[in-house]
Amino acid sequence: MFKSAVYSEPFLNELHSKPIEKPTPHKSIPSTLIRKKPLDLPNLDETQIIRHFHHLSQMNFGVDTGIYPLGSCTMKYNPRINEVISNWDKFSCIHPYQDESTVQGTLQMMYELEQMLKEITGMYAFSLQPAAGAHGEFLGMILTKQYHTSKNESDRINVIVPDTAHGTNPASASMAGYNVIELPSTKDGAVDVDVLEKTINDKTACFMLTNPNTLGIFESDIDEIARIVHDAGSLLYYDGANMNAIMGKARPGDMGFDIVHLNLHKTFATPHGGGGPGSGPVGVGKKLEQFLPIPRVIKKKENYHLSNDFKESIGKIKQFYGNVSVLLKAYCYITLMGGNGLKEASEVAVLNANYMKEKILQKGSYELPFRSLRKHEFVLSCESLLKKKGIRAMDIAKHLLDNGVHPPTVYFPLIVKEALMIEPTETESKYDLDCYIETLCKIADEDTEKIKDSPYNTPVRRVNEVDATKKPVLTWNQI
Ligand SMILES: Cc1ncc(COP(=O)(O)O)c(C=O)c1O
How far apart are the first and last CA of the chain? Predict the structure, then answer.
């Protein structure tokens, strides 16, 4: 008999002693809707199925396979201990409709995680509900709207976004009904403070920024930027997806940001981009606290409660309380790392990025546009390779796959031509970084024709990128 956190043993005994009844169609289902013949499912034995799925898993590339320096995605190793704990049935078997007196441990974890995120970011309060970074941005835009409406300033209809921004920033602002105004960067790859000052006005609702930006460059004029934004009556939004660069070093709250989202599924121990659940908690300054989504976890004496008692709240942004298993992984990770551990993680992430950048530049095959000192990531350009040999960033990316490593992000940010965006993270060894540098530079010297047709060694050859996402082939195939 297996152990269950939900059902009692007498109940299970009774259940197992009953003969198994053949399912009969429910009386309330109209006869026209009842299936006339059995479902046409593939008739496969267990061995075939196991081999099929095992084979599919081997066709994939993940952080567990090798280095995965996908810029802006923070594909770092996620310690297994966090997975193990989030699978404990005391957490995984609870139901959102259980009485809150029976889920005190989970509520305590959520309450304490909120305190930890406040400490890390310098914000006043958090909502743990959003399910992704982009979802957090969308909540940030709704909060922005609510804030200006409460001040009778709903004619603030514009959101300013730098040209280095992640694509989700303008998309989220636009989904929330704002006009997006793009801000060009300086020749150093940073916010142009003079242009910002000329662009911002009494129609501006918010300026969205990530720091360090997607070039890996820290916006050192941030104090001045915050002053300009606030003097114009606008809010300052922090895309915290790059938090891995500055944990324990600098806090968006101290830089003057009003709203912040974090990507727990990048920085705090849940894999990013694996198709599983994510989490994009949103933190706010004091002046926006009353608008946060409900329910919120509160503490009264020694007990934790889910409170809906926030009259000015925007309501709900996600069913129940967000993706609790991801919150739990972040809680365990932050607890295990401690303040100094998080700081060291960021220091090593930045060291690894700058080490790789310098080594690659010494070899001379790629250029580095904009200012040199970077945080956790850097963006190379293949423009001269294209001019000299006709090799594009995409060719380099595909040929890296032939060499058994994952390519960097390509063609982003848009202001770098033929971009290769590299984020090694803190969890790669010097040996793996050196091998990657060697491979990347060797490819640049290879014969153009050979590279153009790569990859050769992968289960799927070069695909039409648009068809691969718009018309994926998801049916059973004997591979
Ligand atoms: C800088 C930046 N902002 C926002 C996002 C959006 O996060 P998500 O993919 O969770 O929606 C990402 C994603 O990696 C990002 O790199």
Answer: 38
Report the 10 Å Cβ neighbour count for 325.
18
Q: Is the pTM of this model over 0.85?
A: yes
- Residue of the nearest CA to atom 14 in ligand 1? 73
Whether 478 maps to a domain, the answer reads no
Q: 41 Cβ partners below 8 Å, 6+ apart? A: none
pLDDT at res. 473 = 80
Tell me if 479 is assigned to some domain. no
Q: Is the domain of 267 the same as that of 355?
A: no
**Cβ contacts of 294 within 8 Å, gap of 6 or more:** 307, 308, 310, 313, 315, 316
Both 453 and 373 in one domain: the answer is yes
Residue with CA at minimum distance from ligand 1 atom 7: 133
Mean pLDDT of 312-332: 96
pLDDT, position 479: 46
Q: What is the arrangement of strands in the sheet containing 419-422, beginning at the earlier edge strand?
A: 378-381, 419-422, 409-410
Which residue among 70, 72, 210, 323 is best mutated to probe the pocket of ligand 1, counting the most ligand atoms within 8 A of its Cβ?
72
Percentage above 90 pLDDT, the chain? 81
Tell whether 300 and 386 lie within a shared domain.
Answer: no
266 shares its domain with 120: yes
Task: Give the chain's domain count.
Answer: 2
> Residue range 266-282: average pLDDT?
89
Flag whether pLDDT at 137 surpasses 90: yes
Rounded to the nearest angstrom, the distance between the alpha carbon of 267 and the centre of ligand 1 is 11
Do 234 and 154 lie in a common domain?
Answer: yes
Model confidence at 136: pLDDT above 70:
yes
Domain termination site, one of 316, 337, 358: 337
Domain shared by 445 and 384, yes or no: yes
8 A C-beta contact, residue 366 and residue 381: yes
Take atom 5 of ligand 1 and give the residue whose Cα is closest.
133
Ligand 1 contact via 346 beta carbon (within 6 Å): no
Domain that holds residue 292: 83-337
Q: What is the pLDDT of residue 6?
A: 45
Residue pair 340/323 in contact (Cβ under 8 Å)? The answer is: no
| Domain CATH number, residue 346 | 3.90.1150.10
Residue 19 banded pLDDT, cuts 50, 70, 90: low
What's the half-sphere exposure (Cβ side, CA atoms, 13 Å) at 37?
Answer: 2
pLDDT tens digits, 339-350: 999 999 999 999
pLDDT of residue 59: 85
Is there a domain that residue 160 lies in?
yes
Say yes or no: 309 and 319 in one domain: yes
Query: Do 396 and 324 fall within a single domain?
Result: no
